[in-house]
Amino acid sequence: MMERDQSLATPYLEFDRTQWAALRDSVPLTLSEEEIVKLRGINEALSLEEVAQIYLPLSRLLNFYISSNLRRQTVLEQFLGTDSQRIPYVIGIAGSVAVGKSTTARLLQALLSRWPEHRRVELITTDGFLYPNKVLQQRGLMKKKGFPQSYDMHRLVNFVSEVKSGAKQVSAPIYSHLIYDIVPERHKIIEQPDILILEGLNVLQSGMDYPHDPHRVFVSDFVDFSIYVDAPEELLKSWYINRFLKFRQGAFSDPNSYFHNYAKLAEQEAIGVATQVWNEINGLNLKENILPTRERASLIMTKVANHEVESVRLRK
After folding, report:
1. Percent of the chain scored above 90 by pLDDT?
2. How far is CA 24 from the centre of its chain?
3. The 195-199 sheet, strands edge to edge
4. What are the pLDDT digits (tens) for 56-98?
5. Would the pTM count as exceeding 0.90?
6. Using CA atoms, how far apart are residues 61 and 21, in angstroms rounded to an integer?
7. Is 4:19 a contact under the CB 8 Å cutoff?
8. In whole angstroms, what is the distance from residue 45 CA to residue 135 CA?
9. Cα 7 from chain centroid?
10. Is a pLDDT exceeding 70 seen at residue 210?
C-alpha cells in the first residue's frame, strides 16, 4: 500500500497501480481484445493491460463481497426459517461526466458475469430517471440537466427499493442520448438479477443534495458497494471536449440527433461550444453536486491521462 503521513487520518487504504495489480492474484482474464474494444467508450483507449491490472482485482474484490453477502442472507434465512429469496447485490458507480463511468459499468458487468458462479448481472443508468425534456422545459431546467433537481428521485428511489425488496419484476425508464430525452412507452425490465450495477452522476447523493425535495430515503441507502471514478478537472474537461468533437463527426450527424445542428460547426466553433457547456453546466455540476459525494464511496479509482487508473483507495 502507498505510504502516507500517519498524522493524516483516513478511512481508506491506498494503493498505487502496481500494488493494486498484484491483488489480481491468479484471476484469469476472460475477455478478448475484441470484446474490450466493444465495451470501451468513444474517447477511451482501454487496453488488455488496464483490464488485467485494474479491473480484474476489482472484480475479485467484488466477488468476495458478493459471496459474503450471500452467506449473510443464508444465515438470516436459517434464523427466520424462511425460504430463499433472491435479493440482488447493488453496485453503484458515480463520477463526473466524461470520466468513463459507463465503460467501468459495462466492463464490470462483463467480468462479474464470467466468474465460475455464473451470476446474472444487470446494468441500469440513472439517466432513465431524468425528467422528460418537456417537464424540464416547463420548469426552466434544461440547462440544469444532470443536476439533482432534474431527476425524478422518488421514482429512482422506488425502483432501487423494489429491486432490493426482491420484487420479481421491476421496470426502469429508458433514456436515449441520441434524442437527449426519455424514450416514450419504453422500459427495461429487471427480473431478480444476482447483481445490479447502477451507474450515474447522482448514485452517491443524499438528502443534503436535494433540499428542494426532502425525503428520508436515498439511492445510496440501497447500494451495497459504491465506486467513484475520479480524475482532475482539467483532464475531465479535455475528455469532454474531445468526446464532443467525436460525436460531432459521428452521432451528431444523424438527422434524429438532438444535437444535429452541432454537426455543421467548424472544429474551433465546436470546441467553443463544448467549452461553454462544460464551464456552465458539467463543470459546475461536478463542483457543486458530484465531487462532494466522492468520500462517500466504498472505493475511489483515480485516473490520469489516457484514462489509465493511477491509484485506488478502498474504504477500510
Report:
1. 70
2. 22
3. 12-16, 309-315, 299-303, 225-230, 89-95, 195-199, 121-125
4. 999 999 999 999 998 988 888 889 888 777 899 999 999 999 9
5. yes
6. 12
7. no
8. 37
9. 33
10. no
